Amino acid sequence: MLDINGTLIFTIIAVWAMMYFLKSFLFGPVLRISQERHQLTDGAKKESERTLQKAQQLLNEYQEKIKQAKIDAFDISRKQLQVFQEQKQALLLKAKNEATEKISQALQELDKSIASTELLLQKEAKTIAALIAKQILQRDIQHGESTTK
């Protein structure tokens, strides 16, 4: 049977004191540190998730702004190209009108020159015809009339 003596009581008290000491100074702080660490890592994890979400949101906003800036730049380029094309058309029309006007003026001058040349040629043709007739016929012809010498 079990004999209760001082050693058994001392052992029970020693084990109980050791458990109390280990619980107070070892297991308690270790568990408390483990819980704090768990809370800190969970907090850091949640904070990093929030930061990551915010970064993703900023990235999306940035990409949207870049997309809008490209659209705006394209619109500006398109409008500028349209202005240049309109200016080109206006310059071409102006050049065409000026060329048409110069051609018209040149044709008028040419018509005047042709008319004056025709008159001159008619006068000279009559003079030459009279000279030829005089040489061939040996008589003067003046304006369609013949005279004998």
Structure description:
The protein is mostly helical and 149 residues long. It has a domain at 23-113. The protein has 1 helix and 2 strands, in the order αββ. It has one helix spanning 6-137; strands at residues 141-142, 145-146. A two-stranded antiparallel ribbon has the order 1-2. The longest helix is centred in the middle third of the chain and has 132 residues, at 6-137. The N and C termini lie far apart (195 Å). The mean pLDDT is 88. Component of the F(0) channel, it forms part of the peripheral stalk, linking F(1) to F(0). It is a single-pass membrane protein. It comes from Candidatus Fischerbacteria bacterium RBG_13_37_8. The chain crosses the membrane at residues 6-27.
What percentage of residues falls in helices of 4 or more residues? over 70%
Counting copies of identical and different chains, the oligomeric state is single chain
Mean pLDDT across the residues is 88
Query: How many individual helices?
Result: 1
Structural class: mainly alpha
